[in-house]
Amino acid sequence: MVEYTLIKKDPNSRARLGKLKTRRGIIDTPIFMPVGTNATVKGIWQHQLEEIGAQIILGNAFHLYLKPGLEIIREFGGLHRFMGWDKPILTDSGGFQVFSIKNKKVSDDGVMFKSPIDGSKIFMTPELSMEIQMTLGSDIAMAFDECVAPEMSREYAEKSVKRTTEWAKRCLAYHDGSQALFGIVQGAFDKSLREQSAAEITSMDFDGFAVGGLSVGEPFPITKEILEYTVDLLPEDKPRYLMGIGSPDLIITAVENGIDMFDCVLPTRIGRHGTALTWNGKINLKAAKFKHSKEPIDNECSCKVCQHYSRGYIYHLFSRDEMLGKLLVSYHNIHFLLEFTGKIREAIASDTFKEFKEECYNSGLIKKEVLLPEL
């Protein structure tokens, strides 16, 4: 259901340029995917996503199962028609959301927990996750996995890897093939468990592979170390997806290690609180120093917000708790990350990825620890 084509490799890292063909369009990789958890990227209209170059967005199986529910989605003919979006959609299996719930009971059969909406009992299984995602009709579905917290013991992580493998088998057995299906490699922060998980998951007939269980609260050096180790265990001829990352630091790190796809709620979440991404790093537009500023959020940005509105105006909107301020900064931030990944693709294509990283460091966009040792 998807076809990945490797176009070019960077000579100084594992960064790669590719194309991912789906039934609803071709995606240029590496690509940032805006997150539309509840069938909406918060604060952004679907036509705005198109105008700023979003090629694929995410929906979440867990949340959409709770509201509006599968009956409504079926009535509308799938998630694309329900939300008025005709480009590709990837759906998260709900594994991370289940991981985030405090009071749950995990067994080899599935996960029992109470609905955060009405308190009713829900038993999430690999089969139910597949049923939800097939009903949603996403272009790419994810296998149901178990993501473990950083503080979990190695003993538990070992059981979790086995469980994730068995759940992956059940997902493949139940899935009807109507959409692409990606497997997820787990293993916490233990390299031997990562190796075991990768060997087991990549031996199955998945259309692509994701690295799960990172960026869940661990220090950046650990994220980088485990990512570097894990990517080498994934096949080169299929797409690679690092789940839940969206800061420029982590995007650069992911790309230099051969990751093709990544997603995060970061641009809209921080945007709603007045923080903007710029080529010189983050800025807090709620700060009083911007009260009189006639400058745009970022002088180097070509988005509509930067072309029409000043930092001073946006400061005013936040000072009066006006909705527009949150919308403007969210729009800018998503545009920024899509433009950022576009420039990464250009750099890989022209063999200047190393120089691009240096420029990002010199401008203040990424931190020193993100750079490769030779830089």
Automatic annotation (TrEMBL):
One GO biological process from the UniProt record? tRNA queuosine(34) biosynthetic process
Query: Short name of one Pfam family for this protein?
Result: TGT
Which Enzyme Commission number(s) are listed? 2.4.2.29
Top EC class of this enzyme: transferase
Cofactor binding summary note: Binds 1 zinc ion per subunit.
Cofactor section: Zn(2+)
- Catalytic reaction list: 7-aminomethyl-7-carbaguanine + guanosine(34) in tRNA = 7-aminomethyl-7-carbaguanosine(34) in tRNA + guanine
User: Is Transit peptide found in the keyword set?
Assistant: no
Gene3D superfamilies xref list: Queuine tRNA-ribosyltransferase-like
Q: Where is the active site?
A: 92 (proton acceptor), 263 (nucleophile)
Task: Tell me a Gene Ontology molecular-function term this record carries.
Answer: metal ion binding
To which pathway does this protein belong? tRNA modification; tRNA-queuosine biosynthesis
List, for all copies, the residue spans of the domain called tRNA-guanine(15) transglycosylase-like: 14-362
Give residues annotated as binding substrate.
Answer: 92-96, 145, 186, 213
User: Where is region (RNA binding) located?
Assistant: 244-250, 268-272
Q: Which family does it belong to?
A: Belongs to the queuine tRNA-ribosyltransferase family.
What the protein does comes down to: Catalyzes the base-exchange of a guanine (G) residue with the queuine precursor 7-aminomethyl-7-deazaguanine (PreQ1) at position 34 (anticodon wobble position) in tRNAs with GU(N) anticodons (tRNA-Asp, -Asn, -His and -Tyr). Catalysis occurs through a double-displacement mechanism. The nucleophile active site attacks the C1' of nucleotide 34 to detach the guanine base from the RNA, forming a covalent enzyme-RNA intermediate. The proton acceptor active site deprotonates the incoming PreQ1, allowing a nucleophilic attack on the C1' of the ribose to form the product.
Whom does it interact with, and what assembly results? Answer: Homodimer. Within each dimer, one monomer is responsible for RNA recognition and catalysis, while the other monomer binds to the replacement base PreQ1.
Q: What is this protein called?
A: Queuine tRNA-ribosyltransferase
Point out the gene that encodes the protein: tgt
